[in-house]
Structure formats: structure tokens, C-alpha cells
Amino acid sequence: MLLKLSELDVVTQAFLATMFTWGVTALGAAMVFFFKKINKSVLDLMLGFAAGVMIAASFWSLLAPAIDMSEEMGKIPWLVVSIGFLSGGAFLWIADKTLPHIHPSLGEDKGDQIEGITTTWKRSVLLVLAITLHNIPEGLAVGVAFGAVAYGIPSATFAGAVALAIGIGIQNFPEGAAVSIPLRREGFSRKKAFLYGQASGVVEPISGVIGALAVITMRPLLPYALAFAAGAMIFVVAEELIPEAQNDRKSDIATIGVMIGFAVMMILDVALG
Fold it and tell me: What sign has the CA pseudo-torsion 132, 127, 23, 167?
């Protein structure tokens, strides 16, 4: 299966990989057919795990290849990755401050305030937008990772790009549930809550293809794009995942989740890469 995938063009590889990550989002959203509520400790563990995966992926699959490629291109590595990394974080910060959304919670309702510009949009739309903000850099990360493979960068391998897609797919599971289950608790039908939950992952194939197209048509952008995706993902981790996971007395559960998530992503990247 992996051999056949490796024979496809880069854009198709990115598209199929992000379709997989979208599929796992839908699988997480499908939990609404079985649960109306999830234990807070389980949520903390899942959020911590997702944070660990994204932290590990940011270095092993994105920043390391960006540094290597910057050196090969005769650029100053630390300057290139710093510009890309901070730009990724700034992009998500601006989106977080302007796009109206509500950070979802699988626990008890906390009367979450709407963030971003004032709007009359329904809560269901705002919940989907919150997860969509997460998925944009994730899809972009997969796209540029496959783009990096096309240039034969030593630290960017096909197996490593696949590992990144698998890791992001795994951490997408709780994100899908984080939309569908709160909506079910608010009175939505299971089917409608599921549809909203999986819809949050639609942006991943789109951003994945855009990322792949950008780097194969404009090669000098690749190290910046890799670092950009890493910065955007770290912003999500620091701004939302870890604070939400630690918003409980049993913060050690979330910490364990982070450690396990980091280890799993590191093993996937190193073993497969």
C-alpha cells in the first residue's frame, strides 16, 4: 500500500494523506452515536496526547527538514526557521482574534465566551470553526511534508511524511468528538451532530493540497512553509490544547498524555523515517 502511494505524484499523496486525517476526524465525531458525554479525565488525556503529537511532529517532521533544506540552499538556517515559525504563530493568532469561534469542551458546559469579532452565528457553526482553526495548519503540515520529500531532503522521507499524517490523524480523533458530543448534549440529533463534527476536518485536504502545490511550484518557499506549519501547530498547542487539558485538578493526567503523545509521534517518525 505504501509502495503504491509513493509512486503517485506529490499533490495526490498529500490529498490522500489528508483525506485519511479527515477520516479520523469523522471517526472521532462518530463517537456521538455511542456517548452523550465523556469523562473529563479521559478528555484531558486525549487533549494532552494530541498536544504531545503536535509538539513532536513540529520538530521531527517540519523544523528539522526546514533546517536541513535552508543549509542546502545556502541560507541562514536559524533565520529562515525563525521567520517561518513566528509567521505561522502570528497567522493563527490573527485568525484566533478575528474569526468568531467557541473553544469546545467535552466536559460540563462552562458558558464559553465567543472569541473573535462579534457575530450572530449559531453556536454549532462557532464550534466547527474552532476546530477548523486547528486543522488548517495540520493539513498544511502534511502537504508541505510530502512536498519536502519530492526534493530528496535527507531528513524528509516518504515514510516520515506518512508518519506525520498518521500522527495528526490520531490526534484528530478527540477533535472530532470535541465538536459532535457537545452538540449532542445541546439537543442536536446524533446524525446532525456527527455531520457538524466531521465537517471541521474538510479543510485538511484543501490546505494539504495547497501546501503541496505551493512548495513544488515555489521551491525557495519550502523551508519557510515547513517552519510556518510548525509555528502554527505550536500556537494551537500553547493557546488551546494544553490550557484546556490542564484546566482541572488532575493536571498530571494531561501531562502523561503529552509525554505519551510525544513518544508515539517520535517513534513513528524515527522508526518509519
Answer: positive
- Give the span between the Cα atoms of 110 and 112, in whole angstroms: 5
Residue 7 lies in a domain: no
Q: Please give, one letter per residue, the 3-state secondary structure of 145-177.
A: HHHHHCCCCCCCCHHHHHHHHHHHHHHHHHHHH
Which residue is associated with the grid cell 484546556? 244
C-alpha cell belonging to residue 182: 457537545
User: What span, in angstroms and rounded, lies between the C-alpha atoms of 53 and 48?
Assistant: 9
Alpha carbon distance 182, 37 (integer Å): 8
- 50-96 pLDDT, tens digit each: 899 889 989 988 898 899 889 888 899 999 999 999 999 999 888 87
* SS3 state of residue 116: coil
- 8 Å CB contact between 35 and 248: no
For the beta carbon of residue 175, count every other beta carbon within 10 angstroms: 26
| SS3 at position 115 | strand
Q: What is the CA radius of gyration of the chain?
A: 18
By C-alpha distance, which of 2, 31, 29 is closest to 17?
2
Domain residues for the domain of 159 are: 17-272
For the record, the C-alpha cell of 178 comes out as 470535541
Read off the pTM.
0.83
Domain-located, residue 256:
yes
Residue 6 lies in a domain: no
In a domain, 10, yes or no: no
Q: How many domains does the chain have?
A: 1
C-alpha–C-alpha distance, residues 132 and 143, integer Å:
16
SS3 151: coil
Helices (H), ranges, 7-151: 10-29, 40-57, 64-72, 77-98, 123-149
Q: What grid cell was written down for 21?
A: 486525517
